[in-house]
Amino acid sequence: MQSLDLFLLETLRAWHAPWLDIVMSTATIMGSMGGIWQLLALIGLTVPRWRAAAWRTLLAVWLALVVVDGLAKPLINRARPIVPPAVERTLPPASRSASFPSGHATSAFAGAAAVSRMWPATRVVWWALAVLIAYSRIYIGHHYPLDVIGGAIVGTAIAFWVLGGRHPATYASTLPKPLPAGVIVKP
């Protein structure tokens, strides 16, 4: 499994460009401690109809961070990849914590799922951002691909649990059906 993970890491990191270094560094910084998701939740807290979803977003991201940094990483204790430094490339430094699962990927997928519930019309944006943040961890060499995949699975599962396990479309089936046209309800 380790050799497959190393092969995938080397394959996915093969192409670099200065502009891509900037994009991936920015994505990694945005994903630190679930920062972008917490910011979006704070914005959601300012509007009453989004408030409950915003609290669930914060809960999902915080729970993801606690599960990964407080439980999974210390228990599994996988070493981070050793990537030779590139000439004239400035990328964010790696954390001192263990590698599996990726905390960035976990909080990104938990955040994307929760923010998508708050603003479903823009869910493609949130999921794309989660994938970008997760991939940035491989690009800059801080995680193996399986660390990121594991984090994505854990984050999605945590969000699913926090959000009650139902897809937003299922809420429509629990709402009362409208009455047919012309039906009069007597008080």
What do you see in this structure?
With 187 residues, the protein is mainly α. The protein has one domain. The protein is built from eight helices and no strands. The chain has helices spanning 2-12, 18-31, 35-45, 51-76, 103-118, 123-139, 145-162, 168-174. The longest helix is centred in the middle third of the chain and has 26 residues, at 51-76. The chain starts with a helix and ends in a 13-residue tail after the last helix. The model has no long low-confidence stretch (mean pLDDT 82).
Secondary-structure element string: HHHHHHHH
Instruction: Estimate the mean pLDDT confidence.
Output: 82
Q: What is the helix content?
A: 55-70%
- The N- to C-terminal Cα distance equals 68 Å
| Total number of strands | 0
If you compute it from the alpha carbons, what radius of gyration comes out, rounded to the nearest whole angstrom? Answer: 20 Å
* Shape descriptor: elongated
Task: Please work out how many helical segments DSSP would assign.
Answer: 8
Largest sheet: none
State the low-pLDDT regions, or none: none
Query: What share of residues are in beta strands?
Result: under 5%
Number of domains: 1
- Structural class, please? mainly alpha
